[in-house]
Write a structure and sequence with these properties.
This is Thiamine pyrophosphate enzyme, N-terminal TPP binding domain-containing protein. The chain is an alpha/beta fold and 780 residues long. The strands form four sheets. Strands 15, 16, 17, 18, 19, 20 and 21 form a seven-stranded parallel sheet that branches. Helix 19 packs across helix 26. The structure holds thiamine diphosphate and magnesium ion (MG). Magnesium ion binds next to helix 22.
Amino acid sequence: MLRLRRLGKPPRPLSLPLTPPRSPRPSAPPPPYQPHPHPHPHLSTSSSPPLASQRVDDVPQCFAPSRLAGPGTFAQGHTLIPSSWPETAPVHSRRSRYGGVVFGNHGPTNGHIRGSTNCQHQRYFHSYYRNSGLYKGAIPTIGTLLSNPASSCRPYSSQALDRTSSKSSAALTSTRPQLALDAPQRHQNRVLSTSQPNMYTASFAFFEAIWEAGITHCFVNLGSDHPSIIEAMVKGQKENKGNFPRIITCPNEMVAMSMADGYARLTGKPQCVIVHVDVGTQGLGAAVHNASTGRAPVLVFAGLSPFTLEGEMRGSRTEYIHWIQNVPDQTQIIGQYCRYAGEIKTGKNIKQMVNRALQFATSDPQGPVYLVGAREVMEEEITPYSLEQGVWDSVELGGLTPKASKEIAEALLGAENPLLITGYSGRNQKIPAALVELANTVKGLRVLDTGGSDMCFPASHPGWLGLRFGIESEIEKADVIVIVDCDVPWIPTLNKPKDGIKVFHIDVDPLKQLMPLFYVPAQHRYRADALVAVEQITSEAQNQATKLDTAVVTKKWEALQASHKERLATIASKTIPAEDGSFGTGHLCKTLKSLCPEDTIWAIEAVTNTGFVHDNLQPELPGSWINCGGGGLGWSGGGALGIKLATDAENGGKGKFVVQIVGDGTFLFSVPGSVYWISRRYKIPVLTIVLNNKGWNAPRKSMLLVHPEGLGSKATNEEINISFDPVPDYSGIAKAAAGGDLFAAKVDKAEDLERTITEAIKAVEGGQNAVVDCKVTLGC
Ligand SMILES: Cc1ncc(C[n+]2csc(CCOP(=O)(O)OP(=O)(O)O)c2C)c(N)n1
Ligand SMILES: [Mg+2]
């Protein structure tokens, strides 16, 4: 016997078998619609308002007046909505919860639906008005089809209503859970059983599938779509100890996604994010853009609202929100950012669906994928099975043709000012060494990073130009340019290559298929793996270099070294603190570099200060610099935690030191309340440096690029609404979120910097999180 708890009432025993026998279903098609001779008595004739303690939400929603004659008079047809009832918006307004449209003779109808009182009706009109199209829906199960044969012409839960109709009109005031639970014997087919410990559900198979595919962490934000997910997590954590993903509770979805993203960027291993239906998917926010643009493989799973509402299957609707979270196409919310978005329609092939999604996520260009599954589907009991994991590899990209690598090598060796521009290639940590090899072969080759997403080329090499977002004087001097895995090699309105030079574009996605506008004037473009292509060009160049005049080569090499020296000197000159003791980002980062461990991983979201940060950290080690790569501010809070989690997990709990450097505005975007709670709860110590320049500097820069002498150029930060005054207590926010267990400090004088950073490093090395709020001056 089961016990079900009814809202607001003591538990009532229900004598439902665990797996009740299904009652015979009508096999005939639904009869053609006949208008009711009488409206449902309990709906149409009652004028009793709900109890004062109830919201109108608690009452069945599918009223359908056939004509709207005016407020309070829409009685013609089948249903009355007493005008005395409370409503959040007038029923005839477009914002009415009844769909914002007039249901009735003037509305769009078809013969089957018109005038009927049912939920399909409501959805039909919603859809019609919203999309100017027809109702779009799928019949998800045979069970639903049979149990709802007349759902297109049957009132809301007619069985339940029939039963309540025998009661007084007070039935109208019943809450929906009551309606659902009171509907009794005739619901022999209702499946409300709880799971048994040995149950193997689609949800459990989902976790097995991701684990078998190499996913070790799930960042979760749970909801009413997840009962079977929760059951499966408990079962897995008990029964599959050591062979089950680690579950991380994330109070905010963007942080969850950014953690998975950071983890994947460092390791190349996709991780999983589980969120709650449409709303949790929306909560992922800009993190989806970041994973897509920044090429981070992340598997996102969200439940779908149940597709049955009368208990036809386990998982059927049990809560109010199951109606309101039921949207026409949930995958569209983030589909355009995803490499793949699909619905799990049965547990029987759930592992194939997971692996198909992961194939997309991990094939170039890598990125997020999205799977959804309705509650009933995720509850489905299936026969345990496993896949041959070896046949689900991602797609492998090839290199260049021999002709292409020869041509590129020849062009580079013959150039006066050869330039290679890259962005994401360093995601493959073998790239920096491969690019150094190429630059050592093609003496005089300079390497510019215009993406800053990954560490691509070491600062100590004389060909290093550092990170510049598409603006660099060497672009205009170059006579041969090779672009490798890069989205924005230069910004033509600010600087561009000379006309007539040779440009080659090598990319995993040379067409930039998700960008409506993109082109570069390249003579040749190739879809190829960056590492393979670079190695091919180097090998060709090594063959050809022997024919070059050594005097010319030596001269080029010496010139390169001299300009590198000059570049470093210019950078250093900007790091000197001002006489009043204030300092800029350059000085701060130089200090950080000198104090933090040499193999520190830097998680950067420094916005207008990114150039100064990169110039002074001068990353050398592959994988040591990770930048968001996208434009959705707030990545680095979760991103840094994901990176730290990854480096610890990959190194037996003793990973590298991780530092997040973040703009003050961006710190607030990162949802610090969630970030620092998670960091403390799961002991993920990271040092966070907040670049406090009292607000957003970027919008002023953007404005000046377009209106250099406009009104805004003479206005104060307050006037252009970019100032954070009064200044928030950033480290205080973090400390509060961590329940007080966090090293929090503020620095505004150079003389205090070294001591404070040293203490913060010590705290982090001792397992505590640290946030240091550093007041930085602009432009250095
Ligand atoms: C989610 C999101 N909202 C808004 C923006 C627009 N935006 C770009 S930079 C920026 C300001 C960032 O401020 P801060 O982190 O303080 O860096 P600063 O500009 O001061 O260098 C804003 C609001 C964005 N990129 N992403
Ligand atoms: Mg700022």
